[in-house]
Amino acid sequence: MPGNETWITVCSKDDLAPGTMRWVSVNGERVLLANVEGEFCAVSDRCGHQFASLSRGRLNGHEVECPLHFATFDVRTGKCTGGPDSKDIACYQVLVMGDDVRIKPRKPGGSGEAGLKF
Ligand code: FES
């Protein structure tokens, strides 16, 4: 495992079929986890426009579309790729170890918008 940082196991890789997504909890933040053709990607579940839950939207390839005003974000980078004027969203590092999918929590003050607290 890279470094000595804490990684949070969020699901088994078989829990998320290619082309699907769901939100998971990472240290109290809602994080959108997507399986893009076998590559796991994680970004904030909070839209950079008016904070809708992106996991309620649609995943098209590597883009997630917000269900509210249809902004789109690249789940590999968190960059806004279309729709209403929106901030980019936070991106998380993902590690697959055996069957486990793990996410590295963001450091306080890290780049991008914070994930949705719940
Ligand atoms: S809240 Fe997501 S596009 Fe407006």
Walkthrough of the structure:
- The chain is mainly β.
- The chain has a single domain (8-106), classed as Rieske Iron-sulfur Protein, CATH 2.102.10.10.
- It is 0% helix and 42% strand.
- The protein has strands at 8-12, 21-26, 29-36, 39-44, 58-60, 63-65, 72-74, 80-82, 91-92, 94-97, 100-103, 116-117.
- The strands form three sheets. Strands 2, 3, 4, 9 and 12 form a five-stranded antiparallel beta sheet that branches. Strands 5-6-7-8 form a four-stranded antiparallel beta sheet, with no helix packed on it.
- It starts with 7 loop residues before the first strand and ends with a strand.
- 35% of the residues are buried.
- FE2/S2 (inorganic) cluster (FES) binds at residues 47, 49-50, 52, 66, 68-71, 83-84.
- FE2/S2 (inorganic) cluster is lined by residues 47, 49-50, 52, 66, 68-71, 83-84.
